[in-house]
Structure formats: structure tokens, C-alpha cells
Amino acid sequence: MDHATGAQTVDRACELLRAVARGGAQGVRMLDLCAHTGLSRPTAHRILRSLQTAGLVQQLADNRRYALGSGMFELGLAAPNPIAQFPQVRSTIEALAASTNDTVYLMLRSYDDVVCTWRAQGAFPIKPNVVPLGERRPVAASMAGLALLAALPESDAEALMQNNRPDLARYCRMSFEDVQRNVHEARRQGYSTGANAVIDGITAVGMAVPASHGRPFLAMSVSAISYRIPPERVPELVRLLRRTAERIADITGCNQAT
User: Fold this and answer.
1) Domain HTH iclR-type: where (predicted)?
2) pLDDT band at 83 (very low <50, low <70, confident <90, very high)
3) Rounded to the nearest 5 degrees, what angle is found at the Cα of 59, between the Cα atoms of 55 and 65?
4) Domain spanning 3-77 has what CATH number?
5) Which fold has domain 86-252?
6) What is the pLDDT averaged over residues 31-56?
């Protein structure tokens, strides 16, 4: 195998791993993996078999879908946290949840996706567990992700939305046109907000953590059952989100010129 072919195989394996990670614990069908990655079934099967041998992927016995294997967990224990100051960031998110009494999500951008890096729950007894901790989903399929898109250069945001377009229906209730409209509005307002966008009956307000280079990689959202976030409460949540975003930017150094 020459270097070019070997590098291409590694790239394909990485793309498959990200696609498998999107499926979470319930796994992903081979058909969907091929559709998402553009790989032929024989090529995808060959790479997945190698990943299974390494323990990085498993095939679930009950439905034959593919999910991440325990080897990924073992590797993750040795990997550095992409947010070096994560304990302080986590405490800041917890404080926001305590002050709002609602659920707060911290999302980290990863290629065309966002990953739920932390979820803090406030004291209100009805807790909307919309996104499980560690779940990977398209950037455009969460309120925090929409805020990230709005904070990116328009050309970057448009490319990401187009990449996410085939997968939206699986992860949220928004059409592609809804996403475009919400991102445009979030760019104008400085925050994203919407009812029933991801799950029916849930409203959320999202905001990106500012970055001096203009390409933020962190965003958060406050989420609750819809009657908890009427229009008149949004300005107060925006104020709290902005204060928290600035605090996280200070902690991580995102707002420092490079």
C-alpha cells in the first residue's frame, strides 16, 4: 500500500468513526453510514471490520447496527480535554443552571457536528433532557449550534448548513429553510432562540462563546419546557448567557488576540 492510499484509508476510517459516534448507543445502519460518508458498502465493511478488530467499533447483536466500541473509551481516558480549563468552565455552566433553574448545555464544535460536553440541570423539577451528555449531532440541529453558525463567517456557516442538510430530519424538527432563517435571525440578534425546534414543547435560547479569531468553537443554551421561557423572559436569559459566555471566554482565553 502506498502512502497516498494509506492516508486515504485513515481519512475514511476517521470519517466512519465520526458517523458511528453520531448514532450513539442505538447504533447506525450500514446503509446510513454509506450514505453519510459516500463510501461503497464493501469499502465501509472492510474498514469497519478493521475498527472492530481494534475494539474501536462494535456491531450490536440485537439490530446489527454499528456503535462505538470500548476501545474508544480506553483511548479517551488518555486523551487531553480539548477545553484545557474544563473544571472552571463546568463550574460556570453549573452556576448558570442554578441561576436559571433550567437545563444548560455546553456544546463543542467538532468538524460538521457539535458534541454535548456538559449538561447542567437547574432546580425546576421538569428537566428537558433533549441532548444526552456526550451526544454528537449536526451543528444545525441544536439551538447552541445555531448560535455557533450565526457567529461564524457567512460562507463558513453556509457550507456547514449544506453539509448538515441531509441529516436534519433525524435530529430535529427544523427544515433546512428553518435553519437558514434561524441563523439569519441569530446573526442579527446575537443569540438564537426557538420553540419546538429540536423537540416539541421545548424552548431554548443559545449563544456562542466569543472568539477573537472570529470562529468560535463553544456555545451554550438554556432549555426548558416552553411555558418556562415565554418571550418576556428571553432578554433576561440573554443577559445571563452573555455574562456566562464572556466569563468562559476569559477562562479559556478565547477572547485574546493571537
Assistant:
1) 7-70
2) confident
3) 140
4) 1.10.10.10
5) Beta-Lactamase (3.30.450)
6) 94
